[in-house]
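Structure first, sequence second, as always.
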């Protein structure tokens, strides 16, 4: 649904900028796909460790190719890592990071996995900053080729309106000791909002859940 990848590029730039603003040095790209965000982050000296995780080995292979790991200079190679794993399970490898990003990932999780994700990332891994983007269902009317009631991708388990995403985000933030605010991703319509929506979670200082 995203002509020429323009919207996806805008999302990635927005997430990169938010990660920079967080001040974090050690960051996670969860559901990293083919590594586009990781390649952008590598260009920023602020990020001293960049870990990409995906459940699909094929995606990780694509990411390794896109990042040109076999040709990478030793300095950059020390900064980057690709791991296979699921967001539905608590994973010690994800603990201790400053920030985590999930770009158009959560809508691929079924309700049971989404609940498990909340515990594994917000309660267990506990990065200081968590940035989540997800489609804004209200914007789907702008794609005339998308039949009414259908999702943007066949693997999406849900697509939320802005109200639904904000309700979920505030519930999770309150439960696990985070503050959250929201931003648009892509061109914003005054009535239906932007194509994607971003939740920016920051951990409350001194919180111990």
């Amino acid at each position: 649904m995203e002509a020429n990848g323009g919207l996806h590029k805008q999302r990635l730039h927005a997430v990169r900028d938010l990660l920079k603003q967080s001040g974090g040095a050690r960051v996670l790209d969860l559901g990293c796909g083919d590594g586009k965000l990781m390649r952008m982050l590598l260009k920023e000296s602020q990020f001293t460790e960049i870990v990409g995780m995906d459940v699909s080995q094929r995606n990780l292979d694509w990411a390794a190719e896109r990042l040109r790991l076999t040709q990478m200079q030793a300095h950059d190679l020390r900064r980057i890592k690709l791991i296979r794993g699921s967001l539905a399970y608590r994973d010690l490898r994800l603990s201790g990071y400053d920030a985590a990003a999930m770009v158009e990932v959560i809508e691929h999780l079924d309700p049971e996995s989404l609940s498990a994700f909340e515990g594994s990332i917000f309660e267990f891994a506990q990065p200081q900053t968590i940035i989540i983007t997800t489609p804004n269902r209200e914007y789907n009317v702008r794609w005339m080729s998308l039949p009414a009631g259908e999702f943007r991708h066949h693997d999406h388990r849900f697509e939320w309106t802005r109200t639904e995403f904000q309700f979920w985000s505030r519930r999770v933030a309150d439960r696990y000791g985070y503050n959250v605010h929201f931003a648009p991703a892509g061109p914003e319509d005054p009535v239906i909002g932007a194509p994607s929506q971003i939740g920016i979670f920051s951990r409350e200082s001194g919180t111990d859940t």
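Margin note: The beta strands are 26-30, 49-54, 80-84, 99-103, 129-135, 178-185, 196-203.
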